[in-house]
Amino acid sequence: MIKTVEYLGDKVRMIDQTRLPLEKVFIDCKTIEDVADAIKAMVVRGAPAIGVSAAMGVSLGAESIQTDNFDSFYIQLEDKCSALAKSRPTAVNLAWGIERMKRVARESKSLSIPKLKEKLKQESLDICKEDIESNMAMGSFGQTLIDDGSTILTHCNAGALATAGFGTALGV
Q1: Which burial class, exposed, middle or buried, applies to 123 when counting CB atoms under 10 A from its CB (0-12, 13-18, 19+)?
Q2: Is the distance from CB of 101 to CB of 120 less than 8 angstroms?
Q3: Measured between alpha carbons, how far is residue 134 from residues 73, 149, 151 in Å?
Q4: CA–CA dist 45, 167 (Å, integer)
Q5: Which pLDDT value is given to residue 170?
Q6: For residue 8, what are the β-bridge partners?
Q7: Which residue from 58, 67, 125, 137 could staple onto 72, CB 3.0 to 4.6 Å apart?
Q8: What CATH number has the domain bearing residue 94?
Q9: Strands, E, within the chain: which ranges?
Q10: Structure confidence at residue 172 (pLDDT)
């Protein structure tokens, strides 16, 4: 299975979809700003992949915040998230990924900041895993409905590159 986006240590690696199909090139994002630039430049495409990338970007942004105070941390996180949200304002999954990460931060305010950062990273990994699981479930359900040899017309990005790695309609 192709990994369109993945968290590797202290960076988020993405397939640069602007280089396909002639080249398979990966870019490494080390900051939330790098992720925002990648989304804006359409390095990553497809609603699910953008949502996963956004969540991972929020985690990178959280890692860069230097404070031990939750209120200060959250204000800085919101500023970073606001800038990320502007990278593709019409992308619903972008806003969804950002909001989910902010909710987890708010619900975890009793944790130390280092533990909160760990929790946010884990949440972004969970979002990625959930995306792949839901894609696989769609593919499994679709297999029972579509006969071999059928012709399928999809709208927009529906393959593995549009998700964290399996595909929605094209996962069938």
Answers
A1: buried
A2: yes
A3: 32, 24, 23
A4: 12
A5: 66
A6: 11
A7: 67
A8: 1.20.120.420
A9: 5-8, 11-15, 26-29
A10: 60
108 in the Ramachandran plot: left (φ > 0), alpha (ψ -120 to 50) or beta?
alpha
Buried b (16+ CB within 10 A) or exposed e, 73-107: bbebbeebbeebbebbeebebbbbbbebbbebbee
Domain that holds residue 93: 5-171
> Dihedral angle at the C-alpha atoms of 121, 122, 127, 131, nearest 10 degrees?
120
Q: How many domains are there within the chain? A: 1
Residues 6+ apart with CB under 8 A from 2: 15, 160, 161, 165
What is the distance between the alpha carbons of residues 106 and 89, in angstroms, rounded to a whole number? 23
Predicted local distance difference test score (pLDDT) of residue 84:
98
Residue 155 scores a pLDDT above 80: no
Helix pair 70-85, 92-107: axis angle to 10 deg = 180
Share of the chain above pLDDT 90, in %: 76
Structure token pair of residue 161? 């590159």
CB 146 within 8 A of CB 172: yes
